[in-house]
Hints:
- It is built from eight helices and four strands, in the order ααβαβαββαααα.
- By secondary structure, it is α+β, with helices and mostly antiparallel strands.
- It has one domain.
- The chain has a four-stranded mixed sheet with strand order 1-2-4-3, with helices on both faces.
- The protein starts with a helix and ends with a helix.
Amino acid sequence: MTTDAAVEQTLLWVDKVIIGENFCPFARRERENGRIRAISTEETDNALILQTLLDEMQLLENNSDIETTLLIIAQGSKDFFDYLDLVDLANRLLRQEQYEGVFQLATFHPDYIFADAPIDATSHYTNRSPFPMLHIIREESLEAALENFPNPENIPVRNVKHAEQLGKAFFQKLLIPHDLLK
Length: 182
């Protein structure tokens, strides 16, 4: 798997699932305006992945033309619980580098599991992606978008209901990397 293929497959997933099924009502505009940056790393060492994350936060801080970055971890963090350790480290880095309140991280993984849901729940698919990923979101932009969106607290509830309507087979087909390119 090359990093280019991981980016291509992830963006196709964004188009078909996140935008196509409206799981994020704010993504379409940014995608159409070319303001979503997607990069992939083949690193497996958390320290090197975190350096890439820091580089991306610095790039976003200095480049307002990019709204958000999807940091795709093409080779590392394949185990979901190892990925959660990386997420903890990433959030610590965000605080340490004084980016708390500037950026936040959304998390996606092929085996994502919400702690408060049954292991076989369809709701897990709202955060399942073809590859482990850290999504860097600008806090200021998110707050502005939520101000103009009616009942934003209902977005996760709507997403779970919609995921259940779509069914597991819909997501499973789209999460198999080679199927995404057909």
